[in-house]
Amino acid sequence: MSDKPTIDINYVAKLARIELDENEKAKFSAQLEQVLDYFKKLSEVNVDGVEPSAHAHSIYNVWRDDIPTAAMPVEEALMNAPAKRDNQIVVPKVVDEA
Amino acid sequence: MSQEIYYKKLTELDEMLDKSEISAVELLKEFIGRTKQIEPQIGAFISFDESRALAQAAESDKRRASGRKLSALDGIPVGLKDVIAVRGQKLTCASKMLENYVSPYTATAALKLEDAGAVFWGRLNMDEFAMGSSCENSAFLKTKNPWDTTRIPGGSSGGSAAATAAGECVVALGSDTGGSIRQPASLCGIVGMKPTYGLVSRYGLAAFASSLDQIGPFARSVKDAAVLLGTIAGHDPKDSTSVKIDIPDYAAQLDAGALSGKTLGVAAEYFGDGVDAAVRKRVEEAIELCRSKGANIKEVSLPHTDLAIPVYYIIATAEASSNLARYDGVRYTHRSKLADDVISLYTKSRAEGFGEEVKRRIILGSYVLSSGYYDAYYLRAQKVRTLIRRDFERAFESVDAILTPTSPTPAFKFGEKTANPLAMYLSDICTINVNLAGLPGISVPCGFTPEGLPVGLQIIGKAFRESELLSIAYAYEQAAGFSDAHPNL
After folding, report:
1. What is the ipTM of this complex?
2. Residues of chain B whose pLDDT is less than 50?
3. Among A69, B164, B185, B268, which residue's Cβ finds the most Cβ atoms within 10 Å?
């Protein structure tokens, strides 16, 4: 980690798929750089040979019996979709025409 | 015992229902009246469904009348944080993104309450997607602290804490990712508990940070919290992180003599400069009271405590950036009208639907996971999480539980920390380690500041030893006697 953390707000907003206005960009950059500066104390800890924890208690390979059960009806599964037609969700065209 | 029916404990109300001194419908009407009377001052409810609740109460009366009572919760009005799904009801997560979302299914914890006969009274306010420590991040309304309505109730489950403290429901469920049950319980002068990670199913809980989230009870006594926890705990095949263990009758196992002979740890790391003087004094008095009731007090060291804030805000935001990717304008109600292609459908829908703190955390989470920063932030945070867990494992070799303040300060004023995210993040300093280590923690009232603001004692227990933790909390509560203090409303 470098001395003064910086954040490329345009790049990260693109990764996060959130459109930010200029005010938000300036505000979040300043606030998050302050937060990242505070995070620097993590780099002072010796973590050589320490296993990372993804969870507090390790659980491996949770299986359950493959018993068929009734699925949620399509109408209910789609009831919160903002645009739908013929039991499918409508979205803008994703594939360009050749 | 309180005179007002709305301040009575669950266990007292169950007895009154048993003796037919009141019906479930009459009881619910008391709470409906109380809610409508004081909601203009408190603002704990995002929504409520009066007719459905009345129908549930009427069913309960039929059961009790015919000797088919389901449990102590049968006919008891229970509030739910608006992050727990109930089929056919709105589930907003206090976000514009989900303002019109209706759950197509019911969360396992809520289903267990229904099966126990509970009456759902109200969907309670919170910080948007459970991100915050003051409830000020709700997209819909401001919840006030019932003890001082110029102050915040804590967060993120501020609505659940305020409604329970103000007598708008008997008990409530919240969720706790970094202190979101214990901190508001402490600030509102009631009991709040985060169970061991894996004790309560997360199925139907809108996800924030999946390796930390846990549903738990709010109540006006430890015994009521024990009843509620016993009802919602247990393995669920729908949540692969829920654990297969036997759930004892926590309420029946409570032991008022539990402090005698116990060894309780006190860690200097939890009494640093950031802890308010009045909070420190009340917690030290609580520790002395435990000693006078026969507990051995032992100093323990949790040396990685001060790293909890960076570790938590890296892991939680990373997980949130992934979990909240689902709100993309395609499936979950809100879609921008300005979108002209699929990418702008995502970016504009998210820009319109999310509030400021949610955007800030998704950006931070995306940053710490991004190429070039992953090792320095996310992977390193996961390793330090291991060190934090080991601190507790070592401490628990010689103590039965650990006593700390729940929150470093009493309830603060509205707007005091909203301009400075880091200052807000630091208000979770006493609670987040417990989530990182997956342990159970409970906040119990331990007195008031000179201004009359409640202070909470946090008791941290061993993993899956809820029964022992609840007994220690119960024994302290019985000795301290703060559970009959209520705000004047």
Report:
1. 0.94
2. 1
3. B185
